[in-house]
Amino acid sequence: MADARRRTHSISEQIMRPMEKYLWHVRVRSHSGDKAVVYSRRHHFEIGAPVQFDQEYDSVTALEYVLGAIGADVANGLRALALKRRIIIDDVEAAVSGELNNPLVHLGVVGEAGHPGIETVTVRVYVNSPAERKDVLGLWEEVLSRSPLVRTFSGTIKMEIGFELTA
C-alpha cells in the first residue's frame, strides 16, 4: 500500500508538472506525378503540386493546405475558446489568401530573382455572435496569442490578420 502511494501523484502535482515534449508525426508518400498522400494517425489525405496556376487543377495544392490550416487554426480556435468561456458564436468564417515572393522561381524560369516562399498571408475572420463586442474581441486576442500556426508564421512572414464581428 505504501508503495502504491509513493508511485501515484496527486491531481495538483500532475497538473503542475511541466508537459513533456510531444512530437506530431505524419508520413508522406508520393505515388504518381505530382500527387502525394499524407498519413496522420488514422487519417490520410491527398496533396497535389506545391503550387498550381490552373483553376481546373484536380487536387488541393500544398500551398492551399497551408492557407487552409491557418484559417482552420484561428476559426476552430475561436469557436473552441468561445465554448469554454460560454460565449455564443453562431458562425465563424476565415478567408485566407497568400502571396509568394516570386512563383516563377518555383517554376524554374531562368533569370528570375527572389525565392518561391510565402511572402504574405492575409487572414480575414468573420464572426457572427450576439455577444458583446468586447467579449468576442477578448476571445480573438487570446486565440491569436495561443495559435500555433499564427505564432509560427508571424515570426517568419508578413501576416495581415483582421477580424469582423457581425450580429
Characterization of the model:
The chain has 167 residues and is an alpha+beta fold. The chain has a single domain, classed as K homology (KH) domain (GMP Synthetase, Chain A, domain 3, 2-Layer Sandwich). The protein is built from 6 helices and 6 strands. The strands form 2 sheets. The chain has a 3-stranded antiparallel beta sheet, with no helix packed on it. A 3-stranded mixed beta sheet has the order 4-5-6, with helices on one face.
Write the layout of secondary structure elements.
Blueprint: H1 2-7, H2 11-16, E1 27-32, E2 35-40, E3 43-47, H3 62-85, E4 91-100, H4 103-107, E5 118-128, H5 133-146, H6 148-154, E6 158-166
Parallel strand pairs: 5-6
Antiparallel strand pairs: 1-2, 2-3, 4-5
Helix pairs in contact: 3-5
